[in-house]
Every structure is written in structure tokens, then in C-alpha cells.
Write a structure and sequence with these properties.
With 176 residues, the chain is mostly helical. It has helices at residues 3-15, 135-149, 156-167, and strands at residues 110-111, 132-134, 171-173. It has a single domain (1-132), classed as E3 ubiquitin-protein ligase SopA (Pectate Lyase C-like), CATH 2.160.20.
Length: 176
Amino acid sequence: MGRMSKRAEVMADLAAGAKALRNRDLVGADLSGLDLMAMDLSNMDLRETDLHGARLIDTSLAGADLREANLSGADLLRADLRHCDARKALFRGAIVKQVDFFGANLMGSDFTDADLEGAALPLSCDGFRDVLHSSRAIFGLFALFLEVRVADDEDQAAIHAALKALAQRTTYLFRR
């Protein structure tokens, strides 16, 4: 089955009001730009699927296989990506605000220019090793972290100045 026929099947399901996609072979499918808001895509095999520019607001991708998927420019606001396998996935320029990545494997993923404000990322585990991102993308995470922990600190202005300087730096590669 070709990429466009997979897309046509998904579009027909969406037109019929489907809230979940089940029993579909979507590996490598072109789902770019589709409105998949509030869909249940949990535990789906979406390897190498093109989801760039897709609207995935409030969508469940919990346990999904997103290895090498392209989610660049996608809107994943409040999406559930807990325990997903997103190794080498592209999230370039994506909106991943308030996304839950608890237990996710993000090794080798690219979050360059992504908006990660309020996202729950596995920063201290192997799942975040070798993740490419821009310091601008994680600025919101560090700001939120520090605001919570230094709310009564007299040196808050210095901390905020340091965070702004961090946000202006170039792309980094986390390595353990």
C-alpha cells in the first residue's frame, strides 16, 4: 500500500468522525498537515511517519513507536507521549508545550527551535541522551524550574539574566 493510500484511508476515517485509528498500517505514512486533534493514537506503530505540520493537540501517543518520525512544525500542545519510543524523531520547530514525555525514549531526537515550555522531559535519564535542541527551546524549561525553586531568592534578577543569556546561545548536543 502506498503512502498516499494510507493518507486517504486516515482522511476517510477522520471525515467519518473517528476518534481513534486502530488496525491501520501507518508505518511510513504521509500524515503531514492533518488535523488529528484529541485522537487516540496510543500504542500505534508510526515509525518513519511524516506528521510534519500536523495538529496533534491533546492527542494520545502514549506507548507509540515514533522512531524516525517527522513531527517538525507539528502542534503537540498537551499531547501525551508517555512511554513512547521517539528515537531519532524530528521535532524541529514543533510546539510541544505541556507535553508529557515521562518514560519516553528520545535518544537522538532533534528539538531544534521547538517550543518546550512546560513539557515534562526525561532530562536525567538515558532517554534524553544525544538529544539535539537549541538553548532557546529549553529556555522555558529552565526558567520554570528556577522560578519554582528560587521564588524567595534575592538574586532572582541575576538568575533571570543568566537564563536570557543561555537562550541566546546556539544549538547544543547533550551527551552523558
